[in-house]
Amino acid sequence: MKVVFLDRDGVINVEKNYLYKIEDFEFVDGVIPALKSLKSEGFSFVVITNQAGIGRGYYTEEQYHTLTRYYLDILQREGIEVLKVYFCPHHPLKGVGKYLMDCSCRKPNPGMLLEAQVAFNINMSESIMFGDKISDILAAKAANVGRSILLRSGHPLCEDDLVVADAVYDSLIDYTTKHGY
Question: Which of 7, 132, 136, 161 is catalytic?
Answer without folding.
Answer: 7
